[in-house]
Design a protein that fits this description.
It is a single chain. By secondary structure, the protein is mainly α. It folds into two domains: 1-51; 53-82. It contains three helices and no strands. It is flat, with a radius of gyration of 22 Å.
């Protein structure tokens, strides 16, 4: 396993020390894992959409239709929404 270190401000260090029960290494590791998964997902998304012929105008029209459909569905479930 590799060890990584980074610099933080004195102010942030003081704030972190108030939460001594938190394992900050675990927090950083978990965040790094989440960010890597997000990055992988973004790369996959880019790979898929790079082949698309959908124009910006088409995408905006589709978004309006989806939003209208979702609003209609939610309005039925929650009539108090207006």
């Amino acid at each position: 396993m590799v060890s990584v270190s980074f610099t933080i401000t004195d102010d942030l260090k003081a704030k972190m020390e108030k939460f001594s029960w938190i394992n900050w290494s675990d927090v950083a590791r978990e965040d790094a894992i989440k960010r890597e998964k997000l990055h992988e997902g973004f790369e996959e998304f880019n790979r898929i959409v790079s082949k698309s012929k959908l124009t910006y105008t088409d995408a905006m029209q589709l978004a309006r239709e989806v939003n209208a459909g979702m609003y209609k569905k939610l309005k039925k479930l929650h009539p108090e929404l207006r």
